């Protein structure tokens, strides 16, 4: 006897999740995660801040991007509802922010900050969806191992370009126009005085 077909998650299922959780629909299954740990939140917040100055606001940098924290993405005709930690769109592809609470235009770059509870989903489930949807660049940031993995899309696959570790300053596509101080992602705030 065949197993009964499982019901695909709907957007109504996602909307029913309490707001203190992050909810996504991945390959028809609802995934619910608690909000990130402080190390996870620190790494994502700092990276978003480092990138948004020169790329989103054009301060001492090239500008031309929208850099956003935790945008809701409706990819592949809305079948996949993903929430990366950070995403970026080139202004030439998305001249204005949408009026909806979600984005149907795939970003040019996504960043997932790994945590023990989500690392497998980010790597195994979400990365192929991003490639399939046409997201050209993806980073995986691990605040525990203090690493940044930089990927580029080649067809429907991801090519690992480089893995950076530690607290050095790096240049990585698509943001190679600036140096990114990795130590800021995992370090304590600078105290003055």
From TrEMBL:
The UniProt record lists the keyword Hydrolase: yes
Organism of origin: Pendulispora rubella
InterPro entries for the chain: Nuclease_put_TT1808, Restrct_endonuc-II-like, Uma2
Record-given protein name: Uma2 family endonuclease
One Pfam family here: Uma2
Domain Putative restriction endonuclease intervals: 11-181
UniProt keywords, alphabetically: Endonuclease, Hydrolase, Nuclease
Molecular functions per Gene Ontology: endonuclease activity
Superkingdom of this protein's organism: Bacteria
């Amino acid at each position: 006897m065949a197993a009964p077909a499982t019901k695909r998650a709907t957007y109504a299922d996602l909307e029913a999740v309490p707001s203190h959780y992050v909810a996504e629909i991945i390959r028809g299954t609802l995934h619910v995660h608690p909000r990130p740990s402080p190390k996870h939140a620190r790494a994502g917040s700092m990276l978003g801040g480092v990138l948004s100055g020169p790329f989103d606001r054009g301060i001492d940098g090239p500008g031309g991007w929208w850099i956003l924290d935790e945008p809701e993405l409706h990819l592949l005709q809305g079948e996949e509802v993903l929430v990366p930690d950070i995403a970026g769109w080139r202004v030439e592809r998305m001249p204005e922010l949408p009026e909806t609470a979600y984005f149907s235009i795939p970003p040019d770059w996504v960043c997932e900050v790994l945590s023990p509870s989500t690392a497998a989903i980010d790597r195994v489930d979400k990365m192929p969806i991003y490639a399939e949807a046409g997201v050209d660049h993806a980073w995986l940031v691990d605040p525990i191992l203090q690493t940044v993995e930089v990927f580029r899309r080649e067809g429907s696959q991801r090519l690992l370009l480089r893995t950076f570790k530690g607290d050095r300053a790096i240049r990585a596509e698509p943001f190679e126009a600036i140096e990114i101080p990795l130590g800021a992602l995992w370090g304590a705030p600078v105290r003055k005085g």
